[in-house]
Structure formats: structure tokens, C-alpha cells
Protein: Alpha-2-macroglobulin domain-containing protein
Organism: Candidula unifasciata
Amino acid sequence: SRALRNGSQTMPPKVMTMDDLPPQTVRNYFPESWFFEKKKLPQDGFMEVSLTLPDSITTWSFMAVGISSTRGICVSEPLEQPVRKLFFTDVRLPYKVTRLEEVKVKIAVYNYHSYAAEVIPLRNGDLNMTVDVQSQNERDIVQRQLHVVAEGLLVRKSLKFVLDPEAKHATFRPSRKNKTILHESSTIKNVFDLKNKEQHTTIDLALPTNVIRGTESCRILAFGDLMGDIITHAVVESRNLIDTPLLDAEEVLGDLAPTIHALLSVQALGLMDENLKERGKNFVRNGVTRVTNYRNDDHSFSLTSGFKPSTWLTAFVLKTLCHGSSLAFIDKQLISAGFNWLFHQIKNDGSLKEQDRRIAKHVTEHDLMLSAEVLIAIMECQNYNQVQCPSLCVCSHLSHQTQVSIYLKTNLQRIRDPMVLAKVTYALMLFDPESDTFLQAAHQLNNHKRKNRQGHIYWSKIEETNEAKNIPLWYCQVAHSTAIEATAYALLVFLRHGSTNTDAIADWLVGQRNCNGAFIGAMDTSVAIQALSMYSLQKHYKDLNLHCNITSKVLKEYFYSFKFTEENALLGKSVNNVPIGQVLDVNIKGQGLGQMQVNVEYNIPIDKNKNCQFKVTVNVKKTKVEWSPDIL
């Protein structure tokens, strides 16, 4: 104690303990808007509603909207209800932070009492951040969630393989004891037991050494049909199929076109129930409405609104609309008018004009590819709408089809790019599958095929990096979109022509799909799903019955099992929190053709100069200065 001037003494300040603190509930509910409820008023028109206000220190504005059969709609005046505390804390957090990042959290303490309050910081949390402020007579506790994200670069890898225990479609090489081996790589190995009709798959989930610890995760997703993932993600879950950014109209078609092919496939297989049928119809309607936003007054289509019309895009759109017309109502005039515009773009030699300068390339192979795309659109629409042919202008312009086909035939020998050759061959097959020119093109296309270590067949201008060496999945690069598109058109050709192993082609395509079932861009995804759907129709089993068991070589208690039949073939079966860093065993029995995806995510360190926006280089060299006479 100490003595005052008048001789009295003061007591030292009391040391406060946790038991001395006033009781206080934690404030952790801070919505911006809440309480949306429907109430039916009694005859007298009065009703009392009891509410518990959220924890925010603010002024709430309540408004009621009434609907009556006699008085219509009425809106009340806002009723304001302030929420106040004389002593409280305001904690302001960023939306998200990166793990290991140093963050400045602003904490403001408000005291509206007439006396001063001494505040002692006690503690704070990591994810659930709690701020507890106190004085001798007051206390406030605020809890806010801080979203912490991992440092480094996020990497997504997806491993896909088919479920085919009878090995009826598989690309394989014989082995001992009535077994065959497929996909023997450093990451996955499939062994087919032909005698017992079983498929044994081992997956090595040993990740790269530079993975940031704690960021890895793995999820397994399986379907009883090759189109199940497309329909689930696009139609049921309304998610975008393609991860890469696309231009406006191309983004719409990237979801619409492949989903239409997938829906047509399951419809033909009899796997579509009434619920999926209705949802698919609504999906197509919404997609068509969105794509018409890019329609011009002359009935063509542009990649972005306000730009010049695009020939290849118009052909792409019209082909998609023709296929979608059997799933939902699409005005035939929309298609006919578009083809009329398209026919006016045909030059005298059979090539096509492209007005969009971002796409136009004045080289022969590009002109051939554009002509092939237009002829494919014409022929697919004509073949797909044979019953409704009189209502479409496509069938009445045989001269235009012949003109474009002659241009393709004349320049066939000048083609060197496998993707251009695949498109031209498919176009010639649709126009006349019995012609010598098509047979010559198919033979030429077959000579351009490439084969990887697993026996899979693909078409590419250069050998894909993934196929050259036996390297783990985590170090593989995604195949180029042109290789996917070329291989897809080749599959469509040889499904009908029959001179090449289509199982080996389909296996390669399945392995290139992303976690949503799509590929890279709109064009390659559309034709690849179209090709795989046609392949699925040919390989479909009438009595689907697949049993799958997933176990771990290290965790003996780890076990998951699921079964696919005709009733649930399109419903995905998922396994979350799959153990990383070990080998999984997948055992498949029964009959059918399904697919399994192993989706892995992890973060890797980023080079410190990776995100630099500028690169400054300084060069120093000697120079000789010559002075003019007037300066001297």
C-alpha cells in the first residue's frame, strides 16, 4: 500500500483470475442476412414470432412481404432492431491465408462505459480463432474461422482405367497360367485372369519426393458405364466439365456438346430413367438458350458477342443442335438458317471462308480441316435427321456436299498433320464409305498411328512424352488436345471401317480424361466423348454385373466394396480419404464395361521467381563517345 497526502492509504489493485471473470457466451454467428421463413397469418391478421438475434453488433432491418387473395401483395415498412454491447470486440480476418504466411489480424476493442477498462490479451487459435478480452467488470469472447490454405502450387492428377473382368475388349499380351497383363507401368498394373474372369489391378500411390507434407489427398470414383462421369458432373451436379479457360461460346459448347453425346448413349442403352430424362432435357434447353446468345443477325455464330462470325464455330454449333434435337425440342429453323449461311461460305474450289481473324490461317491444311469440319456437320445432321429431312435445308444441298468432298479428295495427298487427316477421313466416310478415296484415306490414317508401351494406339504429330518412357503418373504431362482430337476421329473411323484394334484406341482415350470425365478443350472433348459413346454402344453388356473390392497392402483393415448393375450403372461410387504412399489392390469380378478414376491432389513448392511479372536484364559494355566540333 502507499500513503496519500491526507494520511489515508490505498490498497494495491486486485490480481484478477479466471474465476473472477464474468460469465460470457462465445459470439461466433455473424451472418449478413438470415431468417427467411413463410408464415400463414390467422384470421385476425396478428402473429407473434420469437427470434434469437445473431451475434453481430449491428442494426438489423426486418421487412415483411404479404400476399393475399383479396389485396394482392403488400410490403411493410422496415423495422430496425439495433444490437448493442457496451463492451465488445471486433475481429477482422482476411478471406483466406496461405499456410506459414504471416498475417496481421486487426482486433478492435470498444468500450462505451463511462470508465476505463484495462484489457489483457490472453490467447488466440489457429483455424478457429478465439479472441477473449476482459476488464475487471466486463468480458467479450469472439470466435471467427480463419480459412488457411496450403502453400505451394496445387497439382491435380487423375488416373483412369477400364473395369472389364472378362477382358473382352482389352488390349493385352499373353502371359503364363491363363493370364494376360495390361497397363504394366510404374504406377498401375492390370492382370486379367481369363480362366476365372477376374481383373486384378494394383495402383502405386507413392507420390513425388517434393510434395509438401499434409497437402496430399486421394479420392476414388467408379462407374458402371463409360459415360457415367460426364452425366453425373454435367447434368446431376451442374459442374463445368473443362478446367481450362475457354472463350464464351466455346465454354458453353464444352459442356453442352459432350453431355448430349453421353445422354444419347445411355438413352440408346436403355439406362435412362424418367428423372434423368427430364433433367437431361432441361440441361439441353438451358445450353441451347445460352449458345443462342452468340447468334448473329445473319444466323451465324461468333465466339464472343460483337465479333465477326466464325465458320468452324457455326458448324460446331449446328452439329450439336442436330444431335440435341432428339433430347429436347430445338427449332428446326434455327438449324436450317444456320446451314444456309454456312453454304454461302463455300468457295468455288470447295474450301471455306473464315471471317474470324483470330482463327483464320491461310495454309492448305487449315483450309482442308475447316472444309472437313463443315462437311462433317452437314453429313451428321443429314444422317441424324433423316426422318425430318424435308424440314431441313441440309438434304437439299447435295451439290454443296459434293463440292466440299471433291476439294478434300483433290488435296488428300498433301495432308501431313494426323489431326487434319483424321478429320478428312471421317468426313469422306460420312459422305461415301464405299468410295476408293475414303479407303485410301483410311489406309493412310492407319499408317500414321502410334503405339505406346502398353499397346495403346493414338495419333499425334509428335510422340507423346508420356508414351515414350515408363515414368510414374505424377511426372507425366497431359497429352496435347490435337492428339486427343485426332485419336477420337480415328476411333470413329475404325469403329465402322474395322481395320484397326479399336479397343487399343479407346483405352488410350479413356486414360486421357480428367477427373470430370472430359478432356482439354471443347472440340477434343466433344468428339472424344462422341467416339467413346459409339464405342460403348458396340461393347455394351446386356446383363451388367460388376463387383469391385478395394484393399490396401499395408492397412489390412482397409476395405471398400461396391456393385454395379443396369439400375445403378450411371451412379458413381466414391471412396474418400484414400491412403497415400502405398499400394492399393482393386479386384473386379463379373461382366460389364465400367471405369475407375483415382484422383490425387497435392502441393509442390513454387520457385521464388515463378510469379515474377517482369524480367530485367542489365548489359554493360564499353562505348566510344565522339564529340562534335561545336561542343569542343
Notes: Residues 97 and 494 are 52 Å apart (CA to CA).
